[in-house]
Write a structure and sequence with these properties.
The structure is a single chain. By secondary structure, the chain is of the alpha+beta class. The protein has 2 domains: 5-90, Phosphorylase Kinase, domain 1, CATH 3.30.200; 93-228, D-amino Acid Aminotransferase, Chain A, domain 1 (2-Layer Sandwich). It contains 7 helices and 14 strands. The strands form 3 sheets. Strands 8, 9, 10, 11, 12, 13 and 14 form a 7-stranded antiparallel beta sheet that branches. α2 runs parallel beside α7. The longest helix has 24 residues, at 153-176. The structure holds adenosine-5'-triphosphate (ATP) and magnesium ion.
Length: 243
């Protein structure tokens, strides 16, 4: 693995996940350095691999999309891009929830509802999953938040509303650039009581299809052994680098 600038500087690792490493930011506990790895996992960690240069693409794509959202009134944890694979963010108190927004049926939704992949949804669907590797990220709803003390219900509701606003912005942006935003996952946290978008927005966490050919331009190429994975990430990088 390419050494991170943070590691070279001897900064303390706070957390290592499957796709990213969080480092402390010297002199300011309110900030974090996020390092994007090339490691790729799928099916809750059962399939593992490396996607060459993914870390660089994902750092740049996330930074650009956080900027796009900011320009459209959506605040996030993003402060600055520090290096090819690192960004500076605010350190948030994370909601242990993954918010999945869907515009077109694919993956588990297509299976669950018995519809073909590719069926356009007349209204977006928002799903909540409890972030827990041991439990395999089970689907939950707002009543679980209160019953299992997973956070403030009002924060989850606000995050859900922000997720729907983000949907309009991202859907339009990708549509103008030849891609269909099928679905994606967002994470949120709070800073001084304010709900902010966090984590990443990348082809690891979105399904994007070519509008014309419906070819997949995201991590499904890795999940389903379709080849051309790096090219797919590069295509999204090229589009978002114009922001
Ligand atoms: N601004 C932030 N402040 C604090 N924690 C954050 C922030 N943004 C993201 N995180 C957390 O950082 C971690 C990033 O790690 P990573 O995405 O690699 O792994 P993971 O989420 O644990 O696993 P996976 O993504 O494979 O489900 C996540 O736990 C995420 O919730
Ligand atoms: Mg993650």
């Amino acid at each position: 693995m390419k050494k991170s600038v943070a590691e070279e500087r001897g900064l303390k690792k706070i957390y290592e996940g499957k796709a990213k490493i969080l480092y402390e930011y010297p002199g300011d506990e309110g900030k974090l350095i996020t390092y994007f790895k090339d490691d790729a996992t799928a099916f809750n960690g059962q399939k593992r691999g490396i996607i060459m240069n993914k870390g660089e693409y994902n750092n740049a794509i996330s930074a650009s999309l956080f900027k796009l959202l900011k320009n459209n009134g959506i605040e996030s944890h993003f402060i600055d891009k520090l290096s090819d694979r690192e960004m500076l963010t605010n350190h948030l108190k994370m909601l242990p929830v993954e918010f999945v927004v869907r515009n077109t049926a694919a993956g588990s939704l297509a299976k669950k509802m018995g519809v073909e992949e590719g069926v356009k949804l007349p209204y977006p669907v928002v799903e909540l999953y409890f972030k827990s590797d041991e439990l395999g990220d089970p689907m939950i709803n707002e009543t679980y938040i209160r019953a299992f003390d997973l956070g403030e219900v009002k924060d989850v509701e606000e995050a859900k509303n922000i997720a729907l606003k983000i949907n309009e912005i991202l859907r339009d942006f990708f549509d103008k650039n030849g891609l269909l935003l099928v679905d994606y996952k967002l994470e949120f946290g709070t800073l001084s009581g304010k709900v902010l978008l966090a984590d990443e927005i990348t082809p690891d966490t979105m399904r994007l299809w070519d509008k014309v050919t419906l070819e997949k331009v995201d991590k499904d190429r890795f999940r389903r052994d379709l080849g051309g994975i790096e090219e797919a990430y590069k295509r999204v990088y090229d589009i978002t680098s114009k922001i």
